[in-house]
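Lab notebook, page 48
Experiment: co-folding of the full assembly
Goal: obtain a model of how the components sit together before planning crosslinking
Operator: M.T.
Materials (sequences as entered):
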Amino acid sequence: MGESTDIISDLPQSIIENILTRLSIRDAIRTSVLSSKWRYKWSTLTDLVFDEKCVAPASDRGVVENSLVRFITGVLLLHQGPIHKFQLSTSFLQCRPDIDQWLLFLSRNGIKELVLELGEGEFRVPSCLFRCSKLTRLELCHCEFDPPQYFKGFSSLKSLNLHQILVAPEVIESLISGCPLLEYLSLSYFDSLVLRISAPSLMYLYLDGEFKDIFLENTPKLVAISVSMYMHEDVTDFEQSSDYNLVKFLGGVPLLEKLVGYIYFTKYLSIGDDPGRLPITYIHLKTIELYQVSFEDANEVLVLLRLVTHSPNLKDLKVSASPIQLFPLEEEGFDLVERDYFEYKLPRLETVRMTDVSGIRNELEFIRFLLGTSPVLETVIVTSSLSDKDAKMDMVVELLRFPRVSPRAKFLFLQD
Amino acid sequence: MSEGDMAIMKPETMKSYIWLQTADGSIQQVEQEVAMFCPMICQEVIQKGAGSSKNQAISLPQRVNPALFSLILDYCRFHQVPGRSNKERKTYDEKFIRMDTKRLCELTSAADSLQLKPLVDLTSRALARIIEGKTPEEIREIFHLPDDLTEEEKLEPLKNTMDDPRIRLLNRLYAKKRKELKERERLKNVEVEGRVDERSVDDLLTYINGRGPKVVKMPKGKKKKKKKKEQKIVSSDEKEGPQEFHDKESHDLHSEEQEGVDESGSSMREVPNLPSMEDDIFTPEAGSEDGDMDDEIDPAMKEMLDREVEDFARRLNSNWVRSRGQERRPVHFSINGNGTTRRHIG
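Observation: model returned without errors.
Model output:
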């Protein structure tokens, strides 16, 4: 046993594969010319991840595309044994018959995780995909998704991510409800969709698009929600209903730990007839992040206040105000004292981050409320969208006057 | 005696200990919560109730020698403490894996045999980082791997994925040449070898990129290949005339290697002139297991091979006629009386 013994080659194949899996597929395949023992070590790798870096760069798009196709076909032909993960992330490939063939090959080799991030094109998911009953993770980007009649769902699927997919709304809904084990769902780039989600195991939900309405019909296990809500023209695009969206949307998620909303999400929650008091308490909710909240709108402020006061374990709060609008809305006065909000306590709130504060009354009142009700508050970070130095100074002076019930609370004013 | 040890130990420290035996026979006591961090030990204790006394010491796997085991225990001792931050753990891990690659391999193996997955992952990641982006020569040097593949093995595709009788035939033909190639390789100087190796890797990838024989067709490069082929055949025909097949082939293969050296830098790109005829035909899709039959060739075998060569030449002719008959006239192989082959333009 001298210095020059070759130890790595005799490591168990499971370890070798553990090492090779951490290399790029190109580096992994290159090991086949190291020595006779390394000849086929890569060929039983169960995870294959491809992108355009697999092949030599070329200025001609077609050259890269062709060599990438040949590379992947070659690897699949040389591969032996099951393939559990196949990922192809490249904008260089859009719709090519080769992809259909690869998918057929994969569907016969026990594929469990499939990630297809193609360039924008008209790639239509081939029917063999719907026979991959072992799939646990499916991510599709830029595809047309049209399952055959017999398709009833993926019985093992835990994670589904669809980005810019051409699909009928009812297909999405039946796909979701046809995957009983689904824990993670991400839908992005969907237009004018009224979405009903029934997923009894769902824990993580990410939505991004122009949703007209969202119904969480059967999602008792949700722990994290993130929604980016866009709109065509204005708020009237949202389905008007007599139900209060805050209650409708967040009424059936008692285990929620994290809530994140962008763009018009807060506005969406604020629509509907006000029930007066929220019927639910979110005892697990620790993090709330609501961005682009329009503080001029008293209803949005109310959504914010209700969420905060019904989350006794809230630790982190991040709120950004809408950037200054060209024609600002008339600010609706909002008297917190009158509404008894200072009776509440936010017993666990530690950090607050308020960004894009423009110094309007409702914003300052909201900060005053947080300072006056959070006994363990440690840090309040404020950034302002005001460009005028004096106006900014006035705002800071005002904020510093507010009484703080937490002796440790400190203000940080950040320039951005 | 062991009971007595335990009796003294226990009240002192108020901890329970597990008895463990490494492959060299030495027995030691380890704090239970540390030892139990290894699933393999944990299973022995829980399922078999082992390790509670010296005569019931748990035998550790062969791969875990005392030095490695104490290293592993350090790792376990640190990580079994609850409440450490991710950052702390990460910093510890990074320091922990600072060791030579030999040790790293042994540690990976030992951790694997104890089913200590986090440590296997940590060390595997470290090994992957060492391999990442390196040339085969560098990797061979770092891990002391034997450079035991022949040039053509490095060039040749990885696996016979098509059950083509022609390929099987080629494998046998190629086995004949193996010995000579080895001889030639020995003569090559180190500098050239290094460059040759680099080219080989690229060719390997190029093969996968589809320029290898038969698996994936690549019409664009093909035409030019043919041109080159023609030149080569013409020249060898003129210069050497009919020649014994055996010698001729090895000559061509050899000259091919030299060529490859010159072209080493460019072979990754879409340079169509690298693979000449031998590449096209005589690159068998051989598994290394096929290479075992090479060294001695008895006369009966030789006769059989020659017959196959004949057969092979016929196949080639027909194949070429079919594949690109209109473009240019096919190259013909003719067989002379004693079973050797020569080529000429028909």
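Interpretation: The CA atoms of residues 68 and 103 of chain B lie 8 Å apart.
Next step: discuss with group before ordering constructs.
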